[in-house]
Amino acid sequence: MAFVGRTFSIGELARRTGLPVKTIRFYSDEGLLPPTDRTPSGYRRYDVRCLARLELIKTLRELGLGLTEVSRILAREATVPQLAARHVEALDEQIRRLRLRRAVLRAVVKRESEPEEVKLMNKLASMSDEERARLLDEFWAEMTAGLTVDSEFYGRMTSAKPVLPDDPTPEQLEAWVEFAELISDPGFRQVVRGMSERHAASLEAGENPSPVPPEQWPDWMARARECLDAGLAPDTAEARALAGELARACAPAGRDGDDPAFRLELADRIDSGGDARAERYWQLLAIMNGWPPIPTQQPTVSWLVSALRA
């Protein structure tokens, strides 16, 4: 072979590898590329094995490995696959953070955010899924603290966690920011705590916490929506008839569904659980988690409550 027995100067190594002379000299000074020999004048010379070693160093550095990692590979203290696997993990995390940063910047442009909001968005976006879930668990723990509640019902409530994809859209990021602000809002927390207290009080009284049987609620809402879409006012005969059916179906033993007092009581219970912010809570979760959109039911609920009160 033409290279057998031949040695190279640092300048020749630079021309063959495309690396700057300064970089090669640095590698040599750090012990990564010890010279094969020196000339009588003290200039370093490198053989063909050094050339191959330098090509390996160049490749490893281009892949992002640090000098310590490169040194361990050259000393056979660690294999390339071992360090590559660790580096892949680090790169994946770096890519995730870059994607989140890009999403934050896109949301900032879209919302024309002020500096304080930018700071908040960046902080919230940097949270992991585990941190987001913990924040929500703490919210629900406070909302039910000291109360005897239906574990199955609240289990369903708390099982839905906000999970952002690695590359969230500006809408998903905005939804998370709004969601985090919502569950931190004292007014909303007061509303949800009140719902939990009424839920617990109903259980203690031996009553159904839900004013309307959950399995029947979608049907009543669909029928109310048809009336609303048809332009029927809540005080029309058709609306009053529908309200009467609902009240009689929901009346517990010993209560008269046709009693105006019971209807008002039922209307108040439905109304107290129909806070728009509670609905927004689930709409934001749907945006973040990529679920089908959840259309608002507020107009229909308001119409139905008004029909009961008519």
TrEMBL record:
Q: Where is the HTH merR-type domain?
A: 7-76
Question: What is the protein name stated in its UniProt record?
Answer: MerR family transcriptional regulator
Q: Which Pfam families match?
A: MerR_1
Q: Which domain of life is it from?
A: Bacteria
What UniProt keywords are attached to this protein's entry? DNA-binding
Provenance organism = Amycolatopsis pigmentata
Which InterPro entries does this one have? DNA-bd_dom_put_sf, MerR-type_HTH_dom, MerR_fam
